[in-house]
Amino acid sequence: MAVTFSDLHTEQGVKSVEDHLAGKTYISGDQLSVDDVKVYAAVSEKPSDAFPNASKWYDCVASQLAKSFPGKAVGVSIGGSAAQAELFSMDCDQAPATAAADEDDDDMDLFGDETEEEKKAAEEREAAKKDTKKPKESGKSSVLMEVKPWDDETDMKKLEACVRAVEMPGLLWGASKLVPVGYGIKKLTIMLTIVDDLVSPDNLIEDYLTCEPNNEYIQSVDIVAFNKI
């Protein structure tokens, strides 16, 4: 049932709000509504302590409106109190609004409800958080190495065995072949696949292939080709 207030710019009008709010928090129902906003707009200033119910209600509405309208207010004065009182004494059903506006009252986003844009932004942030939690797959590379012996008397089978004996996470040896260099000397060309974050070709050569005991057979190692997979 519609509630009627009049002369809200006077103490008598504020007293009618005071009496209506006895035992209540809001004008209509148990949540802030358009009714509260209409009455709030018609009350020219915060009710005095002589009207504790109205004063507390006024502060509550002002606080929630401030959250929805964060811009800095400088204060305005509105003339025509009699006309203002007449406007807000009208029945809600008689208020000058279109049917479409009446239907939209329940959908008004005045007090912190998320807009579609805000919901979409929140969903995108959540999706981004989930993506950061997923383990990122490290890249891989294909490497071609040339392994050179000391001389033509080096046992190339043992040399290759030394190379393939090197094992570590992210390293996979592939096809190989012996290529003649000259004067009876052959070099070993061998393919390998590495996980970039786990294996460094330079460290593989310096710390494993050309150090003891492998340097008994291996004179030097060169990287001939390096390609990202």
UniProtKB/TrEMBL annotation:
<feature type="domain" description="Translation elongation factor EF1B beta/delta subunit guanine nucleotide exchange">
    <location>
        <begin position="140"/>
        <end position="229"/>
    </location>
</feature>
<protein>
    <recommendedName>
        <fullName>Translation elongation factor EF1B beta/delta subunit guanine nucleotide exchange domain-containing protein</fullName>
    </recommendedName>
</protein>
<dbReference type="InterPro" id="IPR014038">
    <property type="entry name" value="EF1B_bsu/dsu_GNE"/>
</dbReference>
<dbReference type="InterPro" id="IPR001326">
    <property type="entry name" value="Transl_elong_EF1B_B/D_CS"/>
</dbReference>
<feature type="compositionally biased region" description="Basic and acidic residues">
    <location>
        <begin position="117"/>
        <end position="139"/>
    </location>
</feature>
<dbReference type="InterPro" id="IPR036282">
    <property type="entry name" value="Glutathione-S-Trfase_C_sf"/>
</dbReference>
<dbReference type="InterPro" id="IPR036219">
    <property type="entry name" value="eEF-1beta-like_sf"/>
</dbReference>
<dbReference type="Pfam" id="PF00736">
    <property type="entry name" value="EF1_GNE"/>
</dbReference>
<dbReference type="GO" id="GO:0003746">
    <property type="term" value="F:translation elongation factor activity"/>
</dbReference>
<comment type="function">
    <text>EF-1-beta and EF-1-delta stimulate the exchange of GDP bound to EF-1-alpha to GTP.</text>
</comment>
<keyword id="KW-0251">Elongation factor</keyword>
<dbReference type="InterPro" id="IPR014717">
    <property type="entry name" value="Transl_elong_EF1B/ribsomal_bS6"/>
</dbReference>
<feature type="region of interest" description="Disordered">
    <location>
        <begin position="115"/>
        <end position="142"/>
    </location>
</feature>
<dbReference type="InterPro" id="IPR049720">
    <property type="entry name" value="EF1B_bsu/dsu"/>
</dbReference>
<comment type="subunit">
    <text>EF-1 is composed of 4 subunits: alpha, beta (1B-alpha=beta'), delta (1B-beta), and gamma (1B-gamma).</text>
</comment>
<keyword id="KW-0648">Protein biosynthesis</keyword>
<dbReference type="GO" id="GO:0005853">
    <property type="term" value="C:eukaryotic translation elongation factor 1 complex"/>
</dbReference>
<comment type="similarity">
    <text>Belongs to the EF-1-beta/EF-1-delta family.</text>
</comment>
